[in-house]
What does this fold into?
Amino acid sequence: MKNSFVVSFHSSGSFNRDHHRQKRRHSTDDLNKPLSVRSAFDFLESAAMSTNQKQQLRAGMVGMGMIFDETYRPFFERAHVAGVYDRKFGDVDVPLTAVASRTGSRAEKYRAEAGNAIGPFQNFAGGDSATKMVAAGVDFACVATPDNRHFEGAKQILDAGVHLLIEKPSVLTLQELDELVAIARRKNVLAKVVYHKLLDPDHKRLRTLVADNVLQHINNGYCSLLEPKSISGGQFAEWIQGRNPGTYVAVHYIKLIDFSFGGRLKTITATGQRGIVGPKDGSTWDSNQMRMVYEYADGREAAFDIHTSWVTPDNFPGYVEQEVQFRFDNGVWNGHSRKRGIELTVEGKTPIELKTTINTHYNGKCLEPWGERAQRGYGIEVIERFVRELAYVEFAGDASGRAARLAEVQQLSYNDLASDRQTVAAVQALEAILTHAATGEPDCVVRVNDSRGGLVLYRPGSDEPKVLYAPTV
Ligand SMILES: NC(=O)c1ccc[n+]([C@@H]2O[C@H](COP(=O)([O-])OP(=O)(O)OC[C@H]3O[C@@H](n4cnc5c(N)ncnc54)[C@H](O)[C@@H]3O)[C@@H](O)[C@H]2O)c1
It folds into this structure.
């Protein structure tokens, strides 16, 4: 019944049945027909609609760079062929209908390359491209622009009453987070963030052991993620000025720690090195080391060190080398991207053209045993999962139940923007500490929820703390 009813879905969240009503309005001729003939007509018409007119979630995409190619592209191409289906919400079409980027050139290149692997989409370029994209008519939009440009695109999307999926880190300050969450609540739409490492099967297993109290009380740990020089020198060269690898990748681990172990974030410290990507006394960082201290309900604490770099030699075999170690009262969890996986060597190809260490769990192109070519992994699954949550909100029942379904999906703390507070607080603190270090004030400390405010920066030698965020985090 539900499938035959919904024709298209509008960003306000209400279903547009006008078109359906118009189609169903019988002519006076119809009304003059005997009742049995009219019922037969109704039955045939609604049967035809249920097979011909699918539910639809039209997608927009802001940013057509590396992550679009790696994860969004395979999702949209798969959805173009198969849609998204679940017994709860039925068969949903998810066409990519409009994209926005700085110059539009990568989108045109993609259109040419993809051919009929994707449907027709409009391509908008320039500073106001996101606004034009939403005006073209989309039901949800994804933001994958450089980290410090997420907020502006995300705000335009939410302001238009369009559901939002935003790449990590969601935003760089709690002030921005508050604004986006408030708009999403006002417009009754979803505002979610992509932390794909939470869907890594290893991290799911870790969290399960913690949830089941097999691993008891986290005490401390370290995480490290090393990106090759080609990332800072090539891929990101356009926007890397004044940026750091910490915000970009440490945030994966900040969220993993926050989501897996819970607790209250208390203190953030950070340092780093400069001189390869930019001048040694400039504001662009080669590598960063940050420490977070958490406190748990029983008053005990844990400390976590997160090391990141984007200047690792390109021929280092651990491409995007990832390592974690978490120590508990009664156990140790050791994870290493190279030890769990594959080391591939192909003469003349590895480690530059083909990677030596392949994370097929995250993203792998493969020939399925049944002959189909596919690209799969948790990097793609996390996007599909968002679309499924959205389809559940819009299509898993009638309009009277939508508010309850929306509230239910907003409760999912792994991806809802409203649950990203401590992660954004850690990012905001890291950014502030590095900014001060680059302007001659190293070794600052940020404390969370102390007597002076929610996020307070203390500078060595100064008795004037700086309140970065006044409300409680
Ligand atoms: N999930 C992950 O593991 C993962 C991996 C890589 C990147 N990312 C995140 O994805 C985001 C993008 O990274 P990337 O590697 O794709 O970067 P990229 O530099 O390859 O691409 C950035 C894209 O954004 C567009 N853009 C820049 N400014 C814009 C603006 N003002 N309006 C519209 N478009 C704009 C550019 O034209 C380009 O298409 C970053 O936030 C990054 O942290 C996530």
Summary: Residues 1-51 have pLDDT under 50 and may be disordered. The pocket of nicotinamide-adenine-dinucleotide is lined by residues 62-68, 100-103, 106, 129-130, 144-147, 149, 153, 167-168, 194, 196, 235-236, 248 (CB under 6 Å). The chain has three domains: 2-52, 55-196+372-421, 201-360. The two ends are 45 Å apart (CA to CA).
